[in-house]
């Protein structure tokens, strides 16, 4: 087994780590963690399907549907973190709906994995996160969104690192698949490594949320948070 296959196996099964972790402690979660747990749950379906079948049509449908579902779950994750740039945030959502509709009507979801749509997802995630960072930078009040104790910082970091570092890979995916050289296929390791990190960061955030009373203030600017052990509550 070569190194690419080793990383591919770890990348495929690592998603079970945040899934099992989340299912054990989900009753203690905040809204943000429920969004991430649902993302992980839906992501498990195509990952496990890939381990069970090589039928391209089934895999294309499962991954394409997951790509769409992931986008709207991340929208729910980020939406209450932006107030000052709300119009720009919503404009990116509308833009995505138009572009995604065009891709689906033109290419469908059965015969082609929409790696182009994954790239668009990543661009818009990065745009949303930039708006969140700008809002924090321009705020005159103390904000706790990026506080270490807030699980959101783990989710934000995971999505930021994964989206920015795999964007080029998905942009070139069709080209990589078409090349016969073995070394070209080793580029898949880029995706595997950052997918592993994504799920490790998700697990850390879920564990962080499960150990304290959820952040009930919707992570808004100027609101304080006190982490109280569950045994005290």
Number of helices: 10
The largest β sheet comes out as:
none
Cα-atom Rg, whole angstroms? 19 Å
Q: What is the percent of helical residues?
A: over 70%
Low-confidence stretches: 213-233
Give the averaged pLDDT, no decimals. 85
How many domain regions?
A: 1
Bin the strand percentage.
under 5%
Structural class: mainly alpha
- The secondary-structure element order is HHHHHHHHHH
What distance lies between the first and last C-alpha atoms, to the nearest angstrom? 50 Å
Shape label = globular
Care to count the β-strands?
Answer: 0
Can you characterise this structure?
This protein is mostly helical. The radius of gyration is 19 Å and the shape is globular. Helices cover 71% and strands 0% of the residues. The chain has helices at residues 3-13, 16-25, 31-52, 56-79, 86-107, 115-138, 152-171, 173-178, 182-185, 188-210.
């Amino acid at each position: 087994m070569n190194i690419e296959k080793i990383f591919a196996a770890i990348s495929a099964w690592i998603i079970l780590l945040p899934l099992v972790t989340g299912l054990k402690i989900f009753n203690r979660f905040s809204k943000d963690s429920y969004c991430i747990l649902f993302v992980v749950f839906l992501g498990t379906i195509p990952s496990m399907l890939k381990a069970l079948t090589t039928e391209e049509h089934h895999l294309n449908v499962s991954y394409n549907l997951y790509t769409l579902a992931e986008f709207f779950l991340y929208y729910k994750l980020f939406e209450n973190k932006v107030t000052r740039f709300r119009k720009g945030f919503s404009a990116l959502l509308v833009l995505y709906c138009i572009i995604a509709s065009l891709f689906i009507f033109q290419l469908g979801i059965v015969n082609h994995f929409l790696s182009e749509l994954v790239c668009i997802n990543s661009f818009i995630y990065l745009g949303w996160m930039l708006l969140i960072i700008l809002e924090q930078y321009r705020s005159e009040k103390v904000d706790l969104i990026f506080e270490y104790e807030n699980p959101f910082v783990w989710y934000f970091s995971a999505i930021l690192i994964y989206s920015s570092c795999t964007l080029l890979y998905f942009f070139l995916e069709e080209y990589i698949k078409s090349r016969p050289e073995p070394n070209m296929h080793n580029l898949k390791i880029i995706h595997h490594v950052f997918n592993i990190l994504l799920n490790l960061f998700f697990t850390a955030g879920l564990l962080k949320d499960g150990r304290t009373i959820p952040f009930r203030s919707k992570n808004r600017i100027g609101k304080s948070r006190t982490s109280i052990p569950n045994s005290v509550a």
